[in-house]
Amino acid sequence: MNPFDFITQTLRIAVPYLFAASGGLVAERAGIVSLTLEGFMLSGAFTATLGSYYSGSPVIGVLAGAAGGLLFGLLHGIATVRFRADQVVSGIAVNLLVIGLTQVILMLLFDSSSNSPRVEGFQAGLSGFGDPLVWLGLASVPVVAFLLYRTPFGLRVQAAGEHPEAAASVGINVRFIRYVAVAISGVLAGLGGVYLALDQHQFTNNMTAGRGFIAIAAVIFGRWDPWRAGAACLLFAAAETTQIQLQGVAGIPSQFIGMIPYLLTIVALAGLVGRAVAPAALGRAED
Amino acid sequence: MSESLLRRAEEALLPPIVALLVALILGDILILLFHESPAHVYGRMIEGAWGNPYGFAQVLYKTTTLTFAGLAIALALRAGLFNIGAEGQLAAGAFGAALMGIILPAGTPGVLAVPLCLLAAAAAGLLAGGVPGVLKTKFGAHEVIVTIMLNFIILALLNWLLVEHFRVEETLHTAEINAGAVPRLSEFIPGFHGSAANVTFLFAMAAAVWCWWYLFRTPGGYALRATGLQAEAAEYSGIRVGRVWIKAMALGGMLAALGGTNFVLGYKHYYEDGFTGGSGFLAIAVAIVGRNHPFGVVLAAFFFATLSQGGLAIHALVPKQMVEVLQGIVILAMAAAVPEVQRALRGVRSARGATT
Q1: How far is B145 from chain A (nearest CA, A)?
Q2: pLDDT for position A250
Q3: Which residue, among A191, A193, A80, has the nearest Cα to A136 in the 3D structure?
Q4: Which residues of B touch A265 (CB under 8 A)?
Q5: What is the pLDDT of residue B356?
Q6: Other Cβ atoms within 10 Å of A275 Cβ, number
Q7: Distance from A158 to chain B by nearest Cα, in Å?
Q8: Residue A272's pLDDT band (boundaries 50, 70, 90)?
Q9: Which residues of chain B does A101 touch, with a Cβ-Cβ cutoff of 8 Å?
Q10: Dmax of chain B from CA atoms?
Q11: B33·A271 Cβ contact <8 A
Q12: Among B34, B157, B328, whose Cβ lies nearest the Cβ of A97?
């Protein structure tokens, strides 16, 4: 395979990771644990399919997908910010809920427990780069970096995640900031799912298949910095591309390639590639 | 005295009751969407789970795995740690037991083979739970993320071992074990005929009693609970918090791994890819609804097992995935209700205190 194809395939595989990791990063920097990314992605994929199916327009699909991610982002926000539920537990519940709900509604609407009918997606010509979602996904990293480091809102997000009490004492509405952050993460991760669904022209059961967790891995491996997290997404995607290219060729078993993101995350957490410093107030309810 | 007992009962029981009520109401709405009567659906569910000996035995089978995995999570939570790794630990234990059962020559007496298989499972679980414990203690690596990542790593590793080395051609399971099975409960209770329920259920109950005894009646359990309540204070009072963390995670891994033997030693007699089917994640709900008390865990495991078995009986009326939705709602409502109910109770009490 020529290097050009390798790069384009890597970029396309990275799109859902980039969306979800950028979103997860915003929530985590505000102090909300993002074990929910898998659920957000799946809900985005599902509602995008519904939107595109009923309107025949992929643009409506994208909007519906963003709304689906937003909905569960807000649910996680209400549980953790309003009710101060344990963020890990709430995250697991949201994931379970989305997996169950998508299947139940799939049955209700299409009488199938495995997949939706074919839906309209974008023209993916130009090696897949005709799809505007690819460009949006690539843009999500600089946009989130700008938002986080160059805007007053971003500074408030960082304050909410590092020292909520101090933030509150200078008049920042920590709860509101956290709501907005988790909503943004829902929308962005939802768009990651939208790309998957529209690219494959249908929703299939549990189609995100652990990608949300790889995105969390990228956030941690990137030490909670958007640029480094984006680079981690590209790294993981490149490993996946390599594995796909090597299929059938005697080489490293695919299971071991699949482990790379998870192993690297553990290595990062164990401080072997420099200290991974999480936002200080990550996981703590604001009092 | 009775006042404090009442208080404890209120704090233990109110959140689960609130959570179940919320789930019940939201579940009703979902059922109505399918133009079915909630009473009819819930009735079917209970009938399918408890209405006949076979269904009830299946509930006991599911209770077994969930109890072991739920205890694993509850024990870690008592030490202030979140073990999300039960899914991988279950699989590791099942694989360990199956390998031992295959290696042992046929005709090895059960009194020798079963303990050896349990030992192999326990060793696998000790490793799967111990590694995150050590990484937490020595490097400060957060156990939530490490255990999630380890789930993927363990399942991928087992998949590779199975596909490349141990599977029976054209299947995703190992050969049947030569030695090491435990009897089905149906050998003692004929009505349970055809059900997978087996003697591992009794092991699970024994494990719950052991956990209770360990947590509340031994110095080790005291150190564990003290660490969970206030790690820094525990450290000042001379408890080696790091060791407690490693021990709690390793013990938890071991318990979850023993849950995996329910499938291998009691049911299929081989390891099969994907047999856990999310039990390890559901066990998080079991631990939380059971309020991290070993006996609460048993009750919660029985409750979720009932939901799961009952879910099969309602498939003709509504999709059985409805059960997953209900589980999600119960966990979410439970997580939200615990701090909320505790605050409300505090409010009521201080109001009461003010008037008397």
Answers
A1: 8
A2: 57
A3: A191
A4: 145, 149
A5: 47
A6: 12
A7: 20
A8: low
A9: 325, 328
A10: 75
A11: no
A12: B328
Determine whether the interchain pair A271/B84 forms a contact, defined as Cβ–Cβ distance below 8 Å.
no
Nearest to A278 by CA among A178, A165, A157, A162: A162
Judging contacts by C-beta atoms under 8 Å, the chain A residues touching residue B319 are: 103-104, 107-108, 113
CB atoms B332 and A285 under 8 Å: no
- Contact criterion met (CB below 8 Å) for A278 and B142: yes
pLDDT, position A280: 81
The predicted-structure confidence for B181-206, as pLDDT tens digits, reads as follows: 888 998 899 989 889 999 999 999 99
Instruction: Fill in the amino acid letter for B320.
Output: K
B43 is written with which tokens?
Answer: 């009735």
pTM of this prediction?
A: 0.89
- Across B254-281, average pLDDT: 92
Average pLDDT over residues B260-287: 91
pLDDT, one tens digit per residue, over B211-245 is: 999 999 999 999 999 999 988 899 999 999 999 99
Res. A169 pLDDT band, cuts 50 70 90? confident
Q: Which helix (H) or strand (E) holds A29?
A: helix A3-29
With CB atoms and an 8 Å threshold, state whether A104 touches B318.
yes
- Residue in B149, B324, B336 closest to A99 by CB: B324
| B86-120 pLDDT, tens digit each | 999 999 999 999 999 999 988 888 889 999 999 99
The neighbour count for residue A55, using CB atoms within 10 Å, is 15
Give A103's contacts in chain B (Cβ within 8 Å): 319, 321, 324
Residues of B in contact with A83 (CB under 8 A): 335-337, 339-340
DSSP codes, A169-238: HTT--HHHHHHHHHHHHHHHHHHHHHHHHHHHTS-BTTTTTTHHHHHHHHHHHTTT-HHHHHHHHHHHHH
Contacts of A213 in chain B (CB under 8 A): 148-149, 152
**Which of B33, B144, B149, B334 to mutate to probe the A interface, most A CBs <10 Å?**
B149
- What does residue B184 show for φ and ψ, rounded to 5 degrees? -75, 155
Please tell me the total number of residues recorded for chain A in this structure: 287
- Give SS3 for B171: coil
Rounded Cα distance between A136 and A201, Å, is: 18
Which pLDDT band holds residue A274 (cuts at 50, 70, 90)? low
Which of A33, A101, A213 is facing B152, going by the closest CB pair?
A213
CB contact (8 A) between residue B141 and residue A90: no
Q: Is A159:A237 a contact under the CB 8 Å cutoff?
A: no
Q: To which H or E segment does residue A74 belong?
A: helix A58-77
Alpha helices per DSSP H over chain B:
2-33, 38-50, 53-78, 86-103, 110-139, 143-161, 200-217, 219-229, 231-236, 241-263, 279-289, 294-313, 322-355
